[in-house]
């Protein structure tokens, strides 16, 4: 009996030692968690042209600086575009006068300027930066449901001397927007919630002006990326899938959700810029009105057939548009036939999962993105990253939804991984288009059909044979490699294989901005020595044992 007790004690101590060692390796430091300083209240935060102080009980995330920087340039570009459109519609001034009107300064109130709502303002930093860095503003409402947050907002408005432009509001965000459905609508609405934004969309699409700009952030990437398809359907009205292109699919799920809310009120959206960055996605869409134009929605949405073996995919549109037989100026709406696939994948023989619907129309406006890129001021803290990502966005194929990844293609058939230049050259030499996407460094976005992609991989495997031992029990790989390619594909280097963004050495893909970075915790000011500490402490909390919790 005594030996059993000693053995149990030995295992307990051994377990504690292992957990302590694992924690040190995870943290990358020798200090224990209790030795890290807690966030300091009333610490001054400098970002862009603004400075704010937080009470320590209000949410602030330094990693979101890229989000705020990009939003500032996008809204400033939109403001200029909106003035040009209104002037052209009114036809009250000449083109020469139009150039003079566009020269405006930040910090000054303009009667015909933008009316902006930041529905979930927290510290007020975003609204204050808008006031001090975006020219041509009439007023900004910085709203929050938390009284403590509103106190911080008021203090920070006074600290930055922007009382002429920014007004605080202590209200429920949805109720505030519903109050502006009929009158005093907003030119710009910014929704940057903690988690899913869907509960705010119904009121947002009603309270924004025709042609207004809606900015929406979603941080619940686990739901959107396929970890919980049933939850995704509840929140967004679409089934998410576990795919390598999950980040772009997340953007397209969010867009269809916004479109669905807008269509209920005879409105529709026009995405002009959508990005996936860090732990969130961010979309910039214009909201237009027109019941007739809403009929086009079904042709912009598709279901996704995802192969469970080779990770291939096919799209099934919800609707189609065809030219009218008797009048070329009219369009006929009809239903497509389907499905677009057989019961099992023709490449590997595996069954399909069905997801969606997702937005399959373009998610960027190249003209708008180009203007945003040209307008980016060098003083921004994330200027280099913005320039790199927007340059990649401009290189993306506009009308090609979703993408493959090189590592997944190679791993499927257990073959030596070709270089990205090699595989891109093969696709270009075959007469198809190909591009990267900013959402994944190994992405292959192409209009080449799936059988061409796999024929190229089969040709590559002939040059670099797969070990038969590695695929002996792999039905997917053997099924793919049993088929012969329809023709031989050339891997000779193509002149257009290396994109301009790579040649210029731009910062094209995201890097971790901070150790233990992430979405953080609700209503937590993340400042101090370790601003991401609370987020790290929450990681894996459901899997911890009592011993591991006691070590904290």
Automatic annotation (TrEMBL):
Top enzyme category: transferase
One of the record's GO molecular function terms: tRNA binding
Gene Ontology CC terms, in alphabetical order: nucleus
Span list, region Disordered: 519-552
Keywords linked to the UniProt accession: Methyltransferase, RNA-binding, S-adenosyl-L-methionine, Transferase, tRNA processing, tRNA-binding
GO biological process, one term: tRNA N2-guanine methylation
EC number: 2.1.1.216
Keyword Methyltransferase: yes
Catalytic activity: guanosine(26) in tRNA + 2 S-adenosyl-L-methionine = N(2)-dimethylguanosine(26) in tRNA + 2 S-adenosyl-L-homocysteine + 2 H(+)
Coiled-coil region: none
Domain of life: Eukaryota
Biased composition (Basic residues): 534-543
Family: Belongs to the class I-like SAM-binding methyltransferase superfamily. Trm1 family.
Name of protein: tRNA (guanine(26)-N(2))-dimethyltransferase
Lineage: Eukaryota, Metazoa, Ecdysozoa, Arthropoda, Hexapoda
């Amino acid at each position: 009996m005594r030996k059993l007790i000693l053995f149990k004690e030995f295992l307990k101590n051994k377990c504690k030692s292992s957990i302590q060692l694992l924690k040190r390796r995870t943290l990358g430091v020798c200090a224990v968690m209790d030795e890290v300083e807690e966030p300091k209240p009333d610490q001054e935060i400098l970002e862009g042209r603004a400075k704010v102080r937080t009470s320590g009980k209000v949410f602030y995330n330094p990693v979101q600086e890229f989000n705020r920087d990009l939003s500032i340039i996008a809204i400033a570009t939109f403001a200029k575009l909106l003035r040009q459109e209104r002037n052209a519609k009114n036809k009250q001034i000449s083109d020469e006068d139009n150039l003079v009107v566009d020269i405006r300064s930040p910090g000054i109130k303009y009667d015909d300027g933008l009316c902006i709502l930041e529905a979930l303002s927290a510290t007020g930093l975003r609204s204050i930066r808008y006031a001090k860095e975006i020219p041509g503003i009439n007023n900004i409402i910085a709203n929050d449901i938390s009284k403590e947050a509103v106190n911080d907002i008021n203090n920070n408005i006074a600290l930055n001397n922007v009382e002429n432009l920014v007004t605080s509001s202590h209200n429920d965000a949805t109720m505030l927007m519903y109050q502006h459905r009929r009158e005093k609508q907003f030119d710009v609405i910014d929704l940057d919630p903690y988690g899913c934004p869907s509960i705010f969309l119904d009121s947002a699409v009603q309270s924004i002006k025709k042609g207004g700009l809606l900015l929406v952030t979603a941080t619940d990437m686990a739901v959107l990326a396929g970890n919980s398809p049933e939850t995704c359907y509840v929140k967004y009205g679409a089934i998410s899938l576990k795919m390598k292109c999950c980040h772009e699919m997340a953007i397209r799920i969010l867009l269809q959700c916004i479109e669905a809310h807008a269509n209920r009120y005879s409105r529709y959206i026009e995405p002009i810029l959508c990005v996936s960055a860090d732990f969130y996605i961010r979309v910039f869409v214009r909201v237009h009105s027109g019941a007739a134009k809403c009929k086009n929605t079904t042709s912009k949405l598709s279901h996704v057939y995802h192969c469970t073996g080779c990770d291939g995919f096919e799209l099934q549109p919800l609707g189609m548009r065809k030219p009218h037989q008797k009048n070329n100026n009219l369009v006929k709406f009809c239903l497509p036939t389907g499905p677009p696939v057989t019961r099992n994948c023709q490449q590997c023989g595996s069954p399909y999962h069905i997801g969606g619907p997702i937005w399959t129309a373009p998610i960027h406006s190249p003209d708008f993105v180009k203007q945003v890129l040209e307008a980016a001021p060098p003083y921004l803290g994330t200027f280099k990253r913005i320039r790199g990502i927007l340059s990649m966005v401009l290189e993306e194929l506009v009308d090609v939804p979703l993408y493959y990844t090189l590592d997944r293609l190679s791993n499927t058939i257990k073959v030596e991984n070709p270089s990205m230049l090699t595989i891109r050259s093969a696709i270009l030499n075959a007469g198809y288009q190909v591009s990267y996407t900013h959402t994944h460094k190994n992405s292959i976005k192409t209009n080449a059909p799936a059988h061409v992609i796999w024929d190229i991989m089969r040709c590559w495997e002939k040059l670099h044979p797969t070990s038969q031992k590695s695929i002996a029990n792999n039905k997917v790989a053997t099924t793919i490699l049993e088929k012969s390619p329809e023709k031989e594909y050339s891997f000779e280097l193509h002149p257009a294989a290396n994109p301009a963004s790579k040649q210029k050495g731009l910062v094209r893909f995201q890097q971790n901005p901070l150790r233990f970075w992430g979405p953080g915790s609700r209503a937590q000011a993340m400042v101090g020595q370790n601003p991401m500490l609370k987020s790290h402490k929450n990681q894996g909390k459901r899997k911890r044992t009592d011993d591991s919790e006691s070590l904290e």
